[in-house]
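Class prep. Protein, please:
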Amino acid sequence: MSQQGRRTVVCVVWFAVGVMLMVRALPYLGFRSSDPATRDFNPLTGSHVWMALGLALVLGLAKGFTLLKKGARRAARQIVDRGENAPAWTVFSLYMIVLVALMIGAGFAIRLSPYDPTVKGWVVGVLYPAIGLALMIGGVLALSVEPLPD
């Protein structure tokens, strides 16, 4: 697979996960209903929704154009180092796979741990869209950023 093809895979995966996180946050933001019998959080309402989205926007933009830009540059460096026609399975490094596994575990912990339902609504309602936006930005940047220097 070509280097640009592998960059496209990074873009698509990061962007798709970003969209998934934003969709996952909808019930916490009160934009989609969830079964009250099984719900262990209080959805945000009124001006709290817009405050949470504003905070998520600021955090997402900051993370996307700093940490995720560096991550995209790191991914580009690994793609360049593997050459023009490396196998498709070499797109993501072991470091990235371990990091993703830890992030998934942290996401489950945030959503499933028993703590104040109002705090949970705020935490997920801010973090998921913020991280989702950052991943979407990082995914788009992965298509064209310069690789980190050796």
